[in-house]
Specification:
7 strands
């Protein structure tokens, strides 16, 4: 049973590395038209060429600050003009920024974390909804931290990812009349990503793996599969849901 997504038009934010990159690769394998954004992690040209060859369509990679309203407005309009519509949005942009306890956190840092994880999702979603076809799909990448509060110094990040759940459920109701589904993914320990390379020490990674029932970390492909399922007609009756991807480390 395939996903039958050939020809579908998708935007993947933060698609130049890690989970976003994994989603883009799988979408290209399905023959989809894919536009990705990046900011600090420009995708490798060899990766883009390989994806374009698989999909039969050139992958459009654009540098966009997804927290900047005008950049998002202009970007989504350009993609819509290029693709002639948008079927799928994957809100993958996000980040912890740095580990700081709430008692020591400056307001500017708090606002930056919320902007990266919440404002980016809001802005992209609002603009895409202007062009999205009925029956479209919105997939928001949250985190296990939204459930369990995350590790030390990540309360601001955890709060923002918990907000992704609320945004997902509320929006699912708003757009149901257009048969647009809205769901969230909540990955746990996913390696081969800048997040854990930057913020999770090797000893902490090993300890986390021991707490996972499957006794292995996840990889970007482990997130890409559920993302494509949610994008497909196989999940047309699934909306407002959070799909946990953590190998049995945590059960919501």
């Amino acid at each position: 049973m395939g996903f039958n997504l050939a020809g579908k038009r998708a935007i993947v934010t933060g698609g130049g590395v890690g989970i976003g990159m994994g989603v883009v690769a799988e979408m290209c394998g399905e023959g989809m038209l894919v536009a990705l954004t990046y900011l600090s992690h420009e995708p490798d040209q060899a990766f883009l060429d390989a994806c374009s060859a698989k999909s039969g369509q050139e992958v459009i990679a654009s540098r966009v600050d997804a927290t900047d309203e005008q950049q998002v407005i202009d970007y989504v309009a350009r993609v819509n003009a290029e693709f002639g519509g948008i079927d799928i949005l994957v809100n993958n942009v996000g980040g912890l920024v740095e580990r700081v306890a709430i008692a020591d956190m400056e307001l500017d840092l708090w606002r930056k974390v919320q902007a990266i994880n919440i404002d980016s999702m809001f802005l992209m979603t609002r603009e895409v909804l202007k062009f999205m076809a009925d029956g479209g799909r919105i997939i928001n990448v949250a985190s296990l931290a939204g459930h369990n509060g995350g590790g030390n110094g990540s309360t601001a990040y955890a709060a923002s990812k918990s907000a992704v759940f609320g945004f997902t459920r509320g929006l699912a109701k708003e757009v149901a009349g257009r048969a647009i589904t809205v769901n969230a993914l909540a990955p746990g320990l996913i390696l081969d990503t800048p997040f854990h390379e930057t913020f999770t020490e090797p000893d902490a990674q090993r300890a986390a793996i021991q707490s996972i029932a499957l006794k292995r970390p996840g990889m970007p492909t482990d997130v890409a599969g559920p993302a494509l399922w949610l994008a497909s007609e196989h999940a047309s009756f699934v909306t407002g849901s959070v799909v946990d991807i953590n190998g049995g480390q945590y059960f919501a």
